[in-house]
Amino acid sequence: MLILAKSGPKVRYLPLDEIDPSPFQARQAFDAQELAGLALSIRQNGLLTPVSVRRMPSGRYQLVAGERRLRACKMAGMKRVPAILCQYDDDESAALGLLENMQRQGLNPFEQARGIRDVIARWNCTQSQAAERLGISQPALNNKLRLLSLSEEQQQLCLEKGLGERHARAVLRLPEGEPRSLALAVMARSGMNARQADEYVSRLLQEGQKSRRKVTPVIRDVRIFLNTVEKAVRTMKEAGVPAVAKRSEKEDYIEYLVRIPTSAVEKKGPPSQND
């Protein structure tokens, strides 16, 4: 068995049916048309870039990097594939597979985010430590992870409508739930680019601030009404009418109960038309 040595990788041809897929594969979807094109190229030119594998205790091989190439080789009808044999533990294998997919055109932004999340959990490390080990900046890593705050439906909408990572990051500035879904739908329907998406979300936020400012005077007016009711009750009491007022503040409303004895009304009598 050949091992990856310091002098450089050594390649051998391994039976394709002895290579198992990686359990750490972050990519969830593979483009069938892209795989078919790669399979055609492999049939014509062979596999130019070997896959990376490691030997398992069972004697079989486990893929470390090259899932797309391995699938295309199967489609091309190959029986053996060129492979680099590596000595990696689970943590190293998970990291290498993620890095390879991120450096190639492999993963969509949400798959990248889930892959980063999974290796952080596997390494039991901080985001800062993960960024250093993966060779990316911490702000970039944090931005990736923030994408996972979108719901599964919102993530799927981005993928189906061709909305990119910047579209997804733009709606993160909006409240969770329906506002984000509606904004993504408008971006897709209008064909907005990333800059237009940012500007659109900024307009939505500005309109929301204006609406909140308009509510303030109404609240002040309500307080004036309440003060007026309280003043009226005091006036009745000063005039000898035993009025009773009870104010209750509920979660969604303020309830004001004013009780005036009918006897007090009858003593006053009906108002005179000559007054």
Topology (SSEs and partners):
Layout: E1 11-15, E2 19-20, H1 32-45, E3 51-55, E4 61-65, H2 67-75, E5 80-86, H3 90-103, H4 109-123, H5 127-134, H6 138-146, H7 152-161, H8 165-171, H9 178-190, H10 194-238, E6 244-249, E7 254-259, H11 262-268
Parallel strand pairs: 2-4, 3-5
Antiparallel strand pairs: 1-5, 3-4, 6-7
Helix pairs in contact: 1-2, 3-4, 4-6, 5-6, 7-9, 8-10
Largest sheet strand order: 1-5-3-4-2
Write down how many β-strands occur, each being a DSSP E stretch of 2 or more residues.
7
CATH class of the largest domain: Alpha Beta
Strand content: 5-15%
Low-confidence stretches: 1-8, 268-275
Proportion of helical residues:
40-55%
Q: CATH superfamily membership of the largest domain, which one?
A: Conserved hypothetical protein from pyrococcus furiosus pfu- 392566-001, ParB domain
Shape: elongated
Rg, alpha carbons: 34 Å
Distance between the termini: 116 Å
The secondary-structure class comes to: alpha/beta
Per CATH, which architecture of the largest domain? Answer: Alpha-Beta Complex
Order of helices and strands: EEHEEHEHHHHHHHHEEH
Fold-level CATH name of the largest domain: Conserved hypothetical protein from pyrococcus furiosus pfu- 392566-001, ParB domain
Number of domains: 2
- Rounded average pLDDT: 81
> What's the number of helices?
11
